[in-house]
Specification:
Elements: H1 5-11, H2 15-46, H3 51-66, H4 69-77, H5 87-90, H6 93-119, H7 122-130, H8 135-165, H9 177-188, H10 191-220, H11 232-235, E1 258-267, E2 270-280, E3 285-289, H12 296-303, E4 311-316, E5 319-322, H13 334-337, E6 341-344, H14 356-366, H15 372-385, H16 401-413, E7 419-423, H17 431-447, E8 450-454, H18 458-464, E9 467-472, E10 475-480, H19 482-487, H20 491-499, H21 509-514
Parallel strand pairs: 3-8, 3-9, 6-7, 7-8
Antiparallel strand pairs: 1-2, 1-4, 4-5, 9-10
Bound molecules: adenosine-5'-diphosphate.
Adenosine-5'-diphosphate binds at residues 267, 272, 290, 292-298.
Organism: Vibrio eleionomae
Domain ABC transmembrane type-1: 21-213
Protein name: ABC transporter permease subunit
Length: 517
Amino acid sequence: MNFDWNYFVGLLHNVDFWQASVLVVKLSIITWVGGNIFGLLLALSKQSHFKLLQVFASTYIWLFRSLPLLVLLIFIYNAPLLLPGSAQWLSSPFVAGLIALIVSETAYIAEIHRGGLLSVSKGQREAGKALGIKYSGIQRIIVIPQAIKIALPALSNEFVTIVKLTSLVSVISLSEILMVGQRLYTQNFKVIETLCAVAFYYVLIVTVFDRVIHWLERYFDVTNKSAKQVTDEERSLVKMTSEVPSIQTINPTSYPIVNLTGVHKYYGEKRVLEGVDLAVKNGEVISIIGPSGSGKTTLIRTINGLEMLDDGAIMIEGNPFLEPTPNGRIGKNYYQHIQKIGMVFQGFNLFPHKTVLENIMLAPLYHKLGSSDEIKQISFSLLDKVGLIEHAHKYPHQLSGGQQQRVAIARALAMKPDIMLFDEPTSALDPELVGEVLKVIEQLAREGMTMVIVTHEMSFAFKVSDRVVFMEQGAIQLSGAPEQLLGEAHPRLSKFLSNQEIIPNNLELNDATNRYA
Ligand code: ADP
């Protein structure tokens, strides 16, 4: 084999090659960063409610994914023929090449980001909305960080593609690695040696950046992080329970905290709520029970605007809160009052990229409910209240289901709500973890928190509630104090309760409370 090793080794410290490598790195990094910024904006536009933005994003992606980069490069380099004013920038091959690369890569990277955004579960957005965070805040604090983490492997792969694509800019006479090589072998005909050196420089660049991006992936991967210990100083932040400003026992108005009148909800043709009237008084604990599919979850989600009502109205402390709107979107009064409602979901919906403490502090910081120190102090007090202070710096995946749900309760309480809504808070838990969550809810009930709880835990419902509401076929069939409901003979309720393993057939209240005690 006639391979000129000396020549090849000499090329590894050839100044022109190193300058070309710096140029390729510069082109690749700027293209990747620019492509990510514009690609993310494009992906968000594609998901936007605004038709015009959607159409613009879809058209852009369709057009520039269809156009070969080579064509785009030559087109942009020659654009001054059409627009003479652009000659001052586009006559530079670097600028023309960079623009072509960014324009083309934006279309590909937008699709990667769209995949990432779609992978963030609906529950994450709902949790943000229930905490009164607006659309832009939800995207910025909750969705985008998670989406980027999901998209990072594909984005790092795209960086490698970009590095390789830069070889195409030689077509507009930009002196990148391939062009330096071509210039050399057309003079000395040592084609293989020169191309081996070209390959060396590309492989070197890709390898270095591959390592950097892998490091970034590991850095953002919270599953690899071990939790910091809670310090004595942090423990000392815990206030006396009586000082925890989470429980609002004094209602300054005589209005119900929440008042639903004639609430109707349809899913397509299907009527799911049929004229529900419900007034929740200050300090009242209401459990909503009923067979599956009776509309309990829909009702509680309608109260805080996660589902829009189709008819009727919901007032908060005498103020208009929700009513049907022509476009089916949340009306103008919503964001004034949503902070008064705390929501706990069946599936917890904690933010997986934030620690327990950060989960609790996130919404109060967003709403500027106090200084960071004040909010931290309240958050530690709430963590103490739910018995999780030692877990403050853990990530949600490092906790059991019951612990996660208790964090979710603390997170909702941090917003100092006037009413707490619980949507089947124990349904996703293993049986042995149910009790620890119910105890926290019962404690809140004792402290006077106004609550509406959708639950299948009959013993618990009949024990802690001031009023039990029995729903069926989208309507409230019965509503009354537990003793009253159990004392009267309601055939439908008796049948429903006798089907629940918890309540024995004779419907003794004391029996009903046994399991939870
Ligand atoms: P429950 O909580 O009492 O089990 P739900 O409120 O979850 O009842 O559901 C009430 C009815 O509405 C059910 O028939 C269910 O299939 C239907 N439903 C719930 N959510 C949706 C949805 N997003 N789209 C269509 N139908 C739905």
